[in-house]
């Protein structure tokens, strides 16, 4: 099951975020909004987005500080700066601090869309194989092998394993997993995550001395190995 790319917009301009959410949702992206730095950090505890759009002028935490914190803990997430600051020194400093792109306001929605697609393409090309212990997942062939032998997974199981492997050694909460794999809504029960983790364990870890799928009691799951 292919999921829509997830975008986190960190911006305190309500009108702009409303417009961007509608525009990007129409383009088949899943959009999360945070109107402050503190709300963004809370959102990141539940959702790991595929890309972040970050305004530098936030009401509580400076965009520069937030950029540093996101890159420290989520270095793989591409970040596009959205700001009215067009000073070349600001642009160079933020790019050196980890920003992947920089777009000054006002900007066209089509240019933003093109930049998002470019960043996601670059991110997706970075790696096609993900592994833990003797398990290898290939996103080009859509195959999973254990000790070189093919393992038959459903689309949902493949998407779930891929998400766990991309974030290897990180604990993912049930809410994070629901958001990424099942487009989480308040009506969705977190129990579905436990059910599918059980399916994966039977196919991946059953009979193995070295198990890669681990539970973090009270939090969620992780892959190690």
- The largest beta-sheet arranges its strands as 2-1-3-4-5
Beta-strand proportion: 15-25%
CATH class of the largest domain: Alpha Beta
Under CATH, the topology of the largest domain can be stated as: Rossmann fold
Structural class: alpha/beta
Which spans have pLDDT < 50 for at least 5 consecutive residues? Answer: none
Question: In a few lines, what is going on in this structure?
Answer:
This protein has eight helices and twelve strands. By secondary structure, it is an alpha/beta fold. The strands form three sheets. It has a five-stranded parallel β-sheet with strand order 2-1-3-4-5, sandwiched between helices. A four-stranded antiparallel β-sheet has the order 6-7-8-9, covered by helices on one side. The protein has a three-stranded antiparallel β-sheet with strand order 10-12-11.
Brief descriptors of the model:
single chain; 225 residues; alpha/beta; Rossmann fold; Arc Repressor Mutant, subunit A; 8 helices; 21% strand
Question: How would you describe this protein?
Answer:
The protein has 225 residues and is of the alpha/beta class. The protein has 2 domains: 6-125, Rossmann fold (3-Layer(aba) Sandwich); 129-223, Arc Repressor Mutant, subunit A, CATH 1.10.10.10. It is 41% helix and 21% strand. It is built from 8 helices and 12 strands. The chain has helices at 14-26, 37-44, 63-73, 88-96, 109-125, 155-166, 174-182, 191-204; strands at 6-10, 30-34, 51-55, 79-83, 101-104, 129-132, 135-138, 143-146, 149-150, 172-173, 213-216, 220-223. The strands form 3 sheets. Strands 2-1-3-4-5 form a 5-stranded parallel β-sheet, sandwiched between helices. A 4-stranded antiparallel β-sheet has the order 6-7-8-9, covered by helices on one side. The protein is elongated. The mean pLDDT is 88.
């Amino acid at each position: 099951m292919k999921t829509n790319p997830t975008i986190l917009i960190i911006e305190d301009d309500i009108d702009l975020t409303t417009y961007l959410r509608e525009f990007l949702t129409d383009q088949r992206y899943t959009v999360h909004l945070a109107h402050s730095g503190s709300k963004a950090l809370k959102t990141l505890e539940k959702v790991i987005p595929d890309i972040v759009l970050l305004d530098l002028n936030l009401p509580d935490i400076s965009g520069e500080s937030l950029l540093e914190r996101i890159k420290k803990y989520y270095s793989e997430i591409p970040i596009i700066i959205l700001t009215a600051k067009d000073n070349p020194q600001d642009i160079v400093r933020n790019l050196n601090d980890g920003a992947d792109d920089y777009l000054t306001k006002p900007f066209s929605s089509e240019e933003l869309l093109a930049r998002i697609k470019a960043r996601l393409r670059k991110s997706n090309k970075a790696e096609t194989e993900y592994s833990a212990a003797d398990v290898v997942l290939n996103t080009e062939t859509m195959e999973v092998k254990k000790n070189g032998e093919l393992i038959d997974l459903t689309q949902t199981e493949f998407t779930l394993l891929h998400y766990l492997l991309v974030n290897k050694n990180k604990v993912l909460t049930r809410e994070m997993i629901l958001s990424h794999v099942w487009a989480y809504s308040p009506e969705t029960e977190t129990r579905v995550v436990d059910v599918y983790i059980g399916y994966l364990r039977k196919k991946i870890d059953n009979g193995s001395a070295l198990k890669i799928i681990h539970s973090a009691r009270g939090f969620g799951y992780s892959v190690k190995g």
